[in-house]
Amino acid sequence: MNYELLKSAIENEARAQGLAEYEIYYMSSEELSVDTLNREPNSFSSVGSGGICLRVLYDGRIGYAATELMDEEEMKSLVTRAKSNASATEKPDTVGIFKGSESYAELKNSGFTARGAGELKKLCASLADEIYNTSDKVTRGTATYGITAGFVVRLSNSHGLNLETKCGINALQAAAVVCNDGKFESAYDMTELHGEVDLKALAEGVVSNALDKIDAGSVESGKYSVVLSAKQMRTILSAFVSAFSARSAQMGMSLLADKEGEKIASDIVNITDDPMREGVSIQTNFDAEGVAAYRKSVVEGGVLKTLLHNRETAKVAGVESTGNASKGGYASPVGVSPYAFCLEAGDKTEDELFALAGNGIYITELKGLHAGANAVTGDFSIESAGFRIVDGKKGEAVRSFTIAGNFFELIKSIAALSDTVEVAITGGFTTFGAPAVLVHNVSVAGK
Amino acid sequence: MDINNTRLIEEILGIATSTGADFAEIYWELTRNGTITLLSGRIDAIADNTVSGVGIRAFLGTKTVYGSTSDISREGLIKCAKSVAEAMGEGRAEMNIVLKPTAVKDIHPVKINPAEAENKVKCDLLRLATDSARAYDKRIVQSVGNLITVDHTILVANTEGLLKTDRHIRTRMAVSAVASSGGENQNGSCSPGRGMGLEVFEMFGPEKIGRTAAAQAITNLEADYCPAGQMPVAIESGFGGVIFHEACGHSLEATSVGTGRSQMCGKLGQKIANEKVTAIDDGTIPNAWGSVNIDDEGNPTQRNVLIENGVLKSYMVDRLGSRRMGMPMTGNSRRQSYTYEPTSRMTNTFIDNGPDKNEDIIASIEYGLYAKSMGGGSVNPLTGAFNFAVNEGYIVRNGKICEAVRGASLIGTGSDILQDIDMVGQNLATGQGMCGSSSGSVPTDVGQPLIRVSKITVGGR
Predict the structure, then answer these.
(1) What is the pTM of this model?
(2) What is the least distance, in Å, from the CA of A337 to any CA of chain B?
(3) Span A322-340, mean pLDDT?
């Protein structure tokens, strides 16, 4: 059944069961991936999936039910289940189903084009060649991946609101394995396919990263000035982003609760959330409740301007929704998350950050943030790798140490920012971005 | 899709191999997921989700093509099978496929199917847990409970004639408590689960789940930061087994070994760990969190001794790994759903009981860390470099467990730590986790008795 028939089946059943307010949220994805292993074509995968979630308002409460079974009987069942789930819920609904925003911004990149399998295969093969040509130390286990994934989201509700967005991502990934004197190391990197891709630079980057680590030294435990690369600062931002959610704050699970208008970071910290940020692949002009999505300043000059809201959290806080209602997948209840959440650039080059650090550590790899970073407390203790900074310059590679601290202290301690923001999607539909940052007095555990 | 229509399944497999593949497999699933969330003392949301689709995979040697679709009509299946065949090659071939349905013995019986229980029964269980968390201490400002139920039915068929169906039910309660004082938050959690129905809560009382989460939050609220540096560490039983899961387990999966991306390549028969270490992956433990009757390629799960008295005995091998490595399959092929191509994964993986008394382990440490509760972690299987978080830790001084410390992590390499596990206790227990890898997120048990690692880098302040 196509979407219109499914929608019609739900509408008919909802009417028959006396439901006046409901919302249909549909998401489908088509993903194609190819890869090489040891410079040879290895596998091909084409994955299609789609699901529909019904959210109903019944007896003053919200109920959800979702399915991937697309037939009329299942649509009837969906209505019955959502109604039953609403009946057992104890939280009264305060906002109802959304009637629609006055207007929705025009998307800047509505022209997503999926790359074909043939093109991805060629790119993967060429990237593999570049990796192997970079060094004779590249060895078995080296792989390249090409991925194209397109998404369609449709939101329709009982108020007649009908919204649709299409977006997608094309990406190339490199995973190099190197061997030197019987020691093995690996490194990984990815790039989105926007126009021409510099395969040689991508290949040289992963190979040199792997080779650097293979001969890396260790560091003594202590307090250091640390420059976090743009990629790693972006990763840290993603690990603690839930602290900026009003839902987390209202649940007592964010230390930013009731801090709007207060200084929470150093003067040079500016954080924005923009659903249509330039250069970002996944864009939308409406959120998971149908509210128009827009650019907002979250932190300005170190001051928390707003938390991120859906309609329910906004009602509790007595403010307007920031258009940040989200769903982790089609079946998820409505939550809160950003679109392109970025720490904005400063005015230093990375070399100037090294000079300001004097002696310290340049962090180029962080691992295990899903376990080593706690967004409720802000604490982190994370496996790291990178380079020494000696007399203001990048020095020898180091690894097998941790950096530890607290996110809320870290953002207050940012002493300088580099002048280039690097953005990337880091799982789900949220993009994160940051420049490199300099922070003093960070705890390092090594030897 | 009519799973009793053997002819249709044979037709689909025939299409998938029509361009020269030497093997094809079809995987169908119907999964009903249920989640109840209790927040701030009331049922916040109830949601259910039906996952339904098919994955079709073809091999030519070690080259693989995978396709999946949620369109399970005959037309949808044929379209998916054709796309697999087209991606495999341009040749023409015909394979004689005769499926032989085989019954699967269910060794994980369920007494109370969560799907058949009233929502009120499930909500009341959850409330018992979150109420007891809040009652534990006035500094507990929030407790969040989730009751997660999964009813998972699969069919696996392949061109070798295999045709099996299986059903698996699992239930888990996850409670998180937040303690707050003086502008500072700390949290604790407890998340037991089993391949069972609601009878699991006869084993794990909801009140105890809530109190355990709350106690951890309060302990951390009162704790100072963990000091940094290398020191001996005693890691408690249960979820402490994540150390083996990360430090070694992933490196023993054919996904890594078969592609040359494992520190354990070519080490079968070699002594890779202290002789006190015997490690096992066992997917047959009745009703365990990581158990299933058959794996996602239709093979029965089995008990695999991975390391025996420090010597590497076997890897965990799926069908593709078997082809790459020339070794038999071990019943370890798993996937999150039909949208993922299966690969070798752990089931219930644990270090077995050893020779040391638990009290001797603590008494042997002059100064170090006692990691009572572990969090998750990650590993690079190639190098064995791993990390994981300590959720609840205490300083050990002069052989005695002393003050609590927080914010610690442990890092090291698998090859080093396996040798440095120099004491193994006798209170084997397991903990439940969701393991993420290339075939998605799957339930796995980790486990061990109390162990001592003679030295490891502790990330702290």
Answers:
(1) 0.92
(2) 18
(3) 95
